[in-house]
Amino acid sequence: MVVAEPGGAARPKGADAAGQIACTLRDGVVGGENTAPAAASRWDDHPVPVARVSSDVQLAYETFGRPRDPAVLLVMGFGAQLIAWPEGLCRMLAAQGRQVIRYDNRDCGLSTKWEHHPVDLTAFIGAVSGGDIPAARKMIPYTLSDMAADGINLLTALGIEHAHVVGASMGGMIAQRMAIEHPSRIRTLTSMMSSTGEPEVGQSTPEAQQVLFTPRPADRDGYIAAADRELVWASRRYPDVEGLRRSAAASYDRAHYPAGIPRQLGAMVLDGSRAGDLAQLRVPTLVVHGLDDTLIDPSGGRRTAELIPGAKLMLVPDMGHDRPTPLWPDLVTAIAQHTPPLSPAR
Question: Using CA atoms, how far apart are residues 171 and 194, in angstroms rounded to an integer?
């Protein structure tokens, strides 16, 4: 069951830039760059396609469905690989007559890494907290706009002129940037469990922050066991400890790469507020947010829908900062209805 609400909920008073950074730390990056070595990939027997999308970026991707069907580009969040979009969910959406594309963002998974550009996270946080944004920008080798351009360039590499884009968490922020900066390529936007970049909305609870601040072990067994902590922001009705552990194991085995997280974090933080741009957006938009989400409070979704003209808001009971299997039919139906096969050419 889903509940649709108009935007416009009251927003809590703000947090400073340092607090905003703190609310996004995860996967063992606390107070400095995580130097845990990346695990060797165990996916060598199951290679995925890789597309060169610019002179310095290659993206690993997978597709589901028929190439002649409308394309739906799935954009994953902070530090998460393409497999965080469950294959079953992708196939369910493809069965609705969509060509589904999921991919690894730069600095994650099997896509290009910026290993030559380490980031001192302590120095970065100090610069942002002190208001020295020019210094902070010099520390981060790319922007959220660059990450958005990667997705657009992937569509070009695949011969796709227009696509529907669906982004989750930081992926929602990247998808918003795609719609803002490349509107002629985007048929519709779905922003899921995300926010606007305004520090007054979408903040984590203290309990979720505590999990974010706790480093994950570098060894495989410890990393998998630590996945249990994510129950703090998961669906309360559909907790799935075994599913969290399976996902952690698959991520670790495929391409565990914590060193990329500070750079993605910097790009996300320095993007700042998108409120003004979102208020001018004319791309048909669906905003989806779980009411159990403690990692990005539902106020982030409400504010996104409030800003974008004509946006639809779908608040989902029993969904947290996750996509529980029992809710897949609701999510797929909503996305399918928002991404009609016969959308008029833009």
Answer: 8
Nearest Cα to 75, choosing from 152, 180, 142? 152
Give the largest CA-CA distance in the chain.
51
Two tokens, residue 32: 């400095």
CA atoms within 13 A on the CB side of 255: 23
- The model carries a pTM of 0.89
Long-range contacts of 119-122 (CB under 8 A, 24+ apart): 119/33, 119/262, 119/263, 119/266, 120/32, 120/33, 121/29, 121/31, 121/32, 121/33, 121/262, 121/265, 122/31, 122/32
Question: What are the C-alpha distances in Å from 105 to residues 11, 112, 231?
Answer: 31, 8, 25
Residue with tokens 């990939």, as numbered in its chain? 41
- pLDDT score of 178 more than 50: yes
Which amino acid is residue 306, in one-letter code? E
| pLDDT tens per residue, range 241-252 | 999 999 999 999
Distance CA 257, CA 106 (A): 11
What Rg, from alpha-carbon coordinates, does the chain have? 19
CB-CB contact of 321 with 176 (8 Å): no
d(CA 154, CA 157): 5
